[in-house]
Write a structure and sequence with these properties.
heterodimer; A: alpha/beta; six-stranded mixed β-sheet; 26 helices; B: mainly alpha
């Protein structure tokens, strides 16, 4: 079945029961449960943007939920403002706070951020309890009327259900758009390897702030909807444990998918019904479930379900891009007009020095990279080669000297900016983004060059789609030239090591670099693969890119390099043609130790 | 002025408890890289065991305390067996979520066993106080501070002078290499977790007389404990002690001069501020030198 038709079928199969449900359910209590499920779906999907996609240890979603809830409740009860005002207000306030927390997240990582969000959440709940004049303290706010839209008024849980479903569909649409477009993919890249993402042009600070803001905005929306659904709000709803409920939904269901979130929400609401006799032990059961699930089945029940071959096939069919996009492929026009073949260096490193504590890792290093030239950087382990690359790419800040690219100084610039200016790299230990396909790895690297803003991309305007198509065209061309097009949809971690290494180079090329830094590209490659690598480097060279290669494979280096710089103990020993370097006594000493001068001369 | 000194001493005392909680918490982090979010619940269990010992088993106070501490050591053994060991090499996110789940389960279980009400635990010295120049210092305060000092000395001696201590340091720095060189990693992991939980139990029985024992005392205790280690420099022993004492003092002063009901809020505010301004804490983050 064609993907388009499969999707239409799925939508139909889902929407029919969703629309009929309130007419089948007779008891008010059951309707309340259903409304709770819908609310949970919304808030958990929101959380997934920061926690699931971006990998931020955000355990404060309950706080944003609460902020949205109280904002809407206070505006509705004390100021009599209508639904259409309270909802946006709640979203605004929650996302403003989420934005602030997001800004802080960029300074503090991992566990510190988790602790910050815990503290934040506890603080917010304390405010709910103690700011009596505004929040009414422990008693909470009651008798919140159903929404009134003028033309019609909501008067029952069934009718409220339709409002909630409307927002749920909106949230699902929004979430899918974020996840499928460059934003979601950048976030996953950040989660898999933040450093690589930053070095390939992704503004990691901005993405993280964005993900927190979106997460909290949706959390706030859900809070506001909740007060209308339940008619009251109280501080006890927003304790730290509530976060665990959301996380449990994501873990149980499987955080990658909308289906997983729906499944998780269903289970979480119906579980207590099943466990009625044990209801005092609910929390214990949740706690144990969370611990067990995350250790044993982190992909959730969805990952189990997807193991059934037929379901997996359907899933892939549903998500396939075969029917759209591929038709509009056309060979990309990479600005190959950069083939200048001048002798004017595009990257100039002058007198560079850097110290780590008392250790002088680099001192007085001079290096020039010329367009279309392959320049090798060699030296014993610990000589400072990686440090030099780190200085150029902005990971380390030198203590002295200058680094200029096309006349512009790179010192003090953030790595993603340097990448966008035209310096890209590959990594000694593969730094691919494991959870994404080969194609997606390529696409994320294009992010730095993609200018379209958030809303155009989310709504899929013509120019946004064109920009995306251009990136896909470029990726297709590069992948095809490396013979990897057939493997584009495979999870990159499943590809052979050699293919992953080639892919890293292709990924770096997506940024249209003027300078390409390859860190041990030949390491771990078989001889045929090294041949392919050499051909690839040749074609990159012909496009006018300045290439710097660090490697220990001397044969490879001697074959491919036109000029070699040798580093030892942070200083340049010599910069010369390969034949000269091979004979250079100091170089030989650096690698083999002194006292061998005479014996080598004799052997020769 | 005497009021101020009074508050300082109170703050020092409660700060010592926070420091103790933090020390137990980072013991597991430094030893086996496990951030145990259920540490507070272990503290709570220690307090409850002591209460049960005193009321149900009618033990005198000191044996009741011992029951509390030994109980948590046993809990440490069980936790290591069932949940900690499988978690050891897993990413931080999974460890945190799993132990948060554990903490929820323990808290709820305690509520079902011992009820939702707070109960009292008698202090060793009852309400006896010393009075110096109108400054009232309770014996319990002195006890707490003394216990902290003893624990610090013991830790220092243990890590520097005993073979097991050195093995533990080796293990925490390079587990694979340590194992290859004959360090009994499995046994030491048990010891680490059991000591960590024992320290939690100790903090619990010290906290009980001051704060009452309830199923929810653990989460606040842990929050203070890790605020302490963050203030002082995450993972550092000296840092945690300084952080704990500072936190205790700031909190007591704030509660008295600004607002008593918002007392716990100050701890969270301090936490957030430090994380924003200097996340590595006053002394700076522990790096390779962690003990």
């Amino acid at each position: 079945m064609r993907t388009r038709n499969l999707r239409k079928l799925v939508y139909l199969l889902v929407m029919i029961p969703v629309l009929i449900l309130p007419f089948i359910i007779t008891s008010k209590a059951d309707m309340g449960l259903v409304n709770t499920i819908v609310l949970l779906i919304i808030v958990s999907l929101g959380l997934n943007i920061s926690l699931g996609l971006c990998g931020l240890l955000n355990v404060a979603q309950a706080a944003f939920w609460g902020i949205g809830a109280y904002t809407a409740a206070i505006l509705a009860l004390k100021f009599g403002l209508p639904f259409v005002i309270t909802i946006p207000a709640a979203i605004l306030l929650a996302s403003a706070l989420g934005f602030l927390v997001g800004i802080v997240s960029t300074r503090i990582k991992g566990i510190y951020f988790a602790i910050l969000t815990i503290g934040f959440g506890l603080l917010i709940q304390l405010i709910f309890y103690n700011w009596q004049s505004v929040t009414n303290g422990t008693s909470g706010l009651k008798n919140i009327p159903y929404p009134d839209f003028g033309l019609f008024q909501i008067a029952s849980r069934q009718q409220m259900y339709f409002i909630l479903v409307f927002f749920a569909i909106l949230t699902i649409w929004f979430y899918v758009r974020v996840a499928k477009t460059k934003y979601g993919k950048s976030m996953i890249a950040i989660r898999n390897n933040e450093t690589a993402a930053e070095l390939l042009g992704v503004d990691t600070l901005r993405e993280k702030v964005l993900s927190m803001t979106l997460s909290s905005a949706i959390g706030g929306l859900c809070g506001a909807l909740m007060i209308y659904a339940y008619g009251f709000v109280s501080p006890s709803q927003f304790g730290f444990d509530q976060n665990l409920i959301f996380i449990l939904i994501l873990i149980l269901g499987g955080s990658g998918t909308v289906f997983g979130v729906v499944l998780g929400s269903l289970i979480l609401v119906f579980l207590p019904q099943l466990l009625e006799p044990l209801r005092f032990w609910n929390t214990t059961i949740y706690g144990v479930l969370v611990a067990v699930m995350i250790m044993v089945l982190p992909g959730g029940l969805t990952s189990l379900i997807l193991r059934v071959p037929m379901i997996k096939r359907l899933y892939e069919r549903y998500h396939s891009r075969e029917d759209d996009g591929e038709d509009s492929y056309s060979p990309s026009v990479i600005s190959s007009t950069t083939i200048q073949h001048t002798t004017e260096p595009v990257l100039k490193v002058k007198d560079l020095s850097i110290c780590f504590g008392g250790l002088s890792a680099l001192s007085g290093v001079n290096l020039d990279l010329v367009p279309g030239q392959v320049h090798a950087l060699i030296g014993p382990n610990g000589a400072g080669k990686s440090t030099l690359v780190n200085c150029i790419t902005g990971v380390n800040t030198p203590s002295g000297g200058a680094i200029d690219m096309s006349g512009k100084s790179l010192l003090g610039l953030k790595p993603h900016k340097i990448s966008r200016l035209g310096a890209s790299r590959t990594f000694q230990n593969l730094a691919v983004w494991n959870e994404m396909s080969a194609l997606d790895n390529m696409l994320v690297a294009r992010r730095g060059k993609q200018k379209k803003g958030f809303w155009p991309v989310i709504f899929g305007t013509k120019s946004a789609r064109e920009e995306e198509q251009e990136a896909r065209n470029m990726a297709r061309d590069l992948l095809t030239s490396m013979d990897l097009w057939e493997e584009r949809d495979r999870l990159i971690g499943t590809l052979p090591y050699g293919h992953q290494k080639m892919l890293e180079i292709g990924r770096a090329l997506m940024t249209e670099p003027k300078v390409l830094l390859l860190d041990e590209p030949a390491a771990g490659l078989t001889p045929p693969e090294v041949s392919t690598l050499k051909k690839l480097i040749q074609s990159i060279k012909n496009r006018g890119v300045a290439i710097m290669i660090i490697d220990h494979n001397m044969k490879f280096v001697m074959d491919i390099a036109e000029i070699i710089t040798v580093l030892n103990y942070g200083k340049v020993i010599t910069t010369d043609k390969p034949e000269a370097v091979r004979e250079n006594v100091e170089v030989i000493e650096a690698y083999l130790g002194s006292g061998l001068k005479s014996s080598i001369k004799e052997v020769r | 002025m005497t009021d101020f000194i009074q508050l300082l001493i109170s703050g020092l005392s409660i700060g010592s408890i926070y420091a103790l909680v933090g020390l137990g918490f980072i013991f597991a982090i430094n030893g086996v890289s496990i951030v145990n979010m259920a540490h507070g619940e272990v503290l709570m269990l220690g307090a409850f065991f002591a209460v049960t010992g005193a009321t149900v088993l009618n033990l005198p106070l000191i044996p009741a305390y011992i029951v509390g501490i030994v109980g948590t050591i046993i809990i440490g053994y069980i936790l290591n067996l069932v949940i900690i060991r499988p978690l050891i090499k897993k990413p931080l996110f999974i460890v945190m979520i799993a132990t948060i789940g554990l903490s929820m389960a323990l808290r709820n279980t305690a509520m079902n066993i011992w009820g939702a009400n707070a109960v009292g635990l008698d202090g060793l010295f009852g309400n006896q106080v010393i009075n110096i120049n109108n400054i009232v210092i309770s014996y319990q305060n002195i006890l707490v501070i003394a216990v902290l000092a003893v624990v610090l000395l013991l830790q220092s001696w243990f890590f520097r002078r005993t073979l097991t201590g050195k093995q533990l340091r080796a293990m925490s720095l390079r587990p694979k290499v340590a194992r290859l060189l004959g360090v009994p990693v499995k046994k030491l992991t048990y010891i680490t977790i059991m000591v960590s939980c024992g320290l939690a139990g100790l903090a619990g029985v010290l906290m009980g007389p001051i704060y009452f024992v309830s199923f929810s005392m653990g989460s606040i205790a842990l929050a203070k404990g890790f605020t302490a280690t963050i203030i002082g420099g995450f993972g550092r022993i000296e840092g945690t002690v300084i952080g704990g004492i500072l936190l205790g003092i700031i909190e007591t002063l704030m509660a008295s001069y600004v607002s008593p009901t918002f007392k716990d809020g100050f701890a969270f505010l301090v936490l957030i501020l430090i994380l924003i301004i200097k996340p590595t804490g006053i002394l700076g983050e522990a790096t390779s030198q962690r003990v």
